[in-house]
Amino acid sequence: MSRSLPDRVAGLYYAHGLFCSSHPVAILSLAISIILICCYPLINLPMPGNTPKVVINTTVTNGSNRSESSLLYVQQVSLRIGVVPWAEDLALSDAFRAPLYEVFNLLEIIQNYQDTET
């Protein structure tokens, strides 16, 4: 009489577990090498924000004196913020609020900037 499907699946899992417990070094080596092979393409993947963006600068010629002026300026601002000194009476939420305040303050300064020549 043939075995039922659940019995065959149970036997397959039993044989697999027996093989893995009998050859632990080979199984661990195989698993680690598969993980490393799968992660290898991620080494050369550029992280977002680390590479500069290429911007094509198109200039417009002014009609009166034929001087060139740029249409677009791209700037990157890096802001490093920390809560120093850390007092015992500060809550963990203060560690988030203080840097975020500085970021929004810098964003407001950048958005409200007006060039005197324009």
Automatic annotation (TrEMBL):
Ranges where the SCAP N-terminal domain occurs: 70-116
UniProt keyword terms in alphabetical order: Endoplasmic reticulum, Membrane, Transmembrane, Transmembrane helix
Compartments where found: Endomembrane system; Endoplasmic reticulum
Keyword Endoplasmic reticulum included in the entry's annotation: yes
Gene Ontology CC annotation, any one: Golgi membrane
GO MF annotation terms: sterol binding
Pfam families cross-referenced by the UniProt entry: SCAP_N (PF24006)
Transmembrane in keyword set: yes
InterPro entries: SCAP, SCAP_N
Main subcellular localisation: membrane
Transmembrane segments: 12-43
UniProt cross-references to PANTHER family, sorted A to Z: STEROL REGULATORY ELEMENT-BINDING PROTEIN CLEAVAGE-ACTIVATING PROTEIN
Name of the protein this chain belongs to: Similar to SCAP: Sterol regulatory element-binding protein cleavage-activating protein (Homo sapiens)
